[in-house]
Design goal:
70% of the residues lie in helices and 0% in strands. By secondary structure, it is mostly helical. α1 runs antiparallel to α2.
């Protein structure tokens, strides 16, 4: 999984921020984590979706 590292980094950042009382940073890290999960999920969906090519119907 090419994108798992960013999930780990953002999770670690959020944990660090919470442990050190950096509430705003923790919140922003959580927002970024949510965005990363959405983006990665969408990208995986596009990569997994088969390409459908239907030739035009033959019209006589």
């Amino acid at each position: 999984m090419a994108y798992e590292w960013i999930i780990d980094v953002l999770t670690d950042l959020g944990t660090f921020a919470r442990v050190n009382g950096l509430a705003e940073l923790a919140g922003k890290a959580d927002e970024a984590l949510d965005a990363a999960r959405r983006d990665i999920g969408e990208r995986r969906g596009r990569e997994a979706a088969p390409l459908h090519h239907h030739p035009p119907a033959d019209r006589h």
